[in-house]
User: Fold this.
Amino acid sequence: MVLGGNILHYKLQKQSLLDTRINQNSELKKQLEGFTPSNPAVMEIKILVAGQIGAGKSSFINSINSSFQGRITSGALVNSSAGNTKSFTKTLREIKIRSKKNLPIVFRDIMGLEPEMLAGTQTDDIINALFGHVKEGYRFKESKQIAYKDQHYTGDPGLSDQAFCLVYVIAADTVQFTDDKLMDKLRIIRQRISDEAIPQVIVMTKVDEACPLVKNDLRKIYQSKKIKEKMQMCSDTVGVPMCNIFPVKNYHEEIDTDDNVDVLILKALDQIVHLADDRLLSSSN
Assistant:
C-alpha cells in the first residue's frame, strides 16, 4: 500500500513540475509576443549572432522559432555534415522570429569564426555588421573585409540598421579545446565595441553533450558543477560576466519540441531582447 502511495506521489510531483514548466513557457512566450521596441522609430530590434563553426549559432535561431511555433523549424540554414570545418553560412541573413505572426525581433546570422587570421568571418566584418554598415545578402570573404564601395555597404546607417546586442555562441562540450587564436578574435571584437556599451552575451550550446547529468535530465542544468565550470571558463576567456551566459540545448535531431528545452531557449531570448532594448533606449536619448 505504501509502495502504491509512493508511486502516486511521484506521478503527481512529476505532473506538477511539468505543469509549472508549461506555465513558465507560456508566460515567457506571452511576454515576448507583447514586446515592442522602446523607440517607436525602430520597428524591429536586431541581434547579431557570431560563433565558432559548428557551435550551433544557426541552430540556436531555429530553436527559438521552434519553441514559439511548437514544431521543429529550419529558417536558418544548418550544416548537417559531421566534421565539416567550413561555415555553412556564407552570406549575411536576417531571420525573423515568428510566433502566430512575426515578432519585432530579428537575428542577423553571419559566417562562422575560424582561428586563422584570414579564415572565416573577419572581425571587422562582424563589427561593421553590428553597427549596421553591412546589408543583408553580403557574401563574406575569408581574405578581406567588406569594402566601402561594395553595394552591400551602408555608409551612414540609421538606428533600424544597427544591431543592439552581440551574441557569441560557444559549444560547452569543446570550449576547453577552443583555439586561443579564435578566442583572441572574440576578445578583439569585445574590446572594439565595449566603448559603445553594446551588450554582449554568450549562449552556451550542447550542454547535454558536456555533462552526463544534464544529458539524463535537462532540468538539472543549474545543479551541474560541470556546466558551471564551463560557464566560468567562457567568462574568464571572453570577458563576458556570468550573468550574461545562458546555457541551452538546441534542437538538432528531435522531431518534436520539448518544454524543458523551450524554457532555456525562451529565458535566454527574454534576457537578450531586454538587454538589446536597453541599448536601443540609451542610443535614442
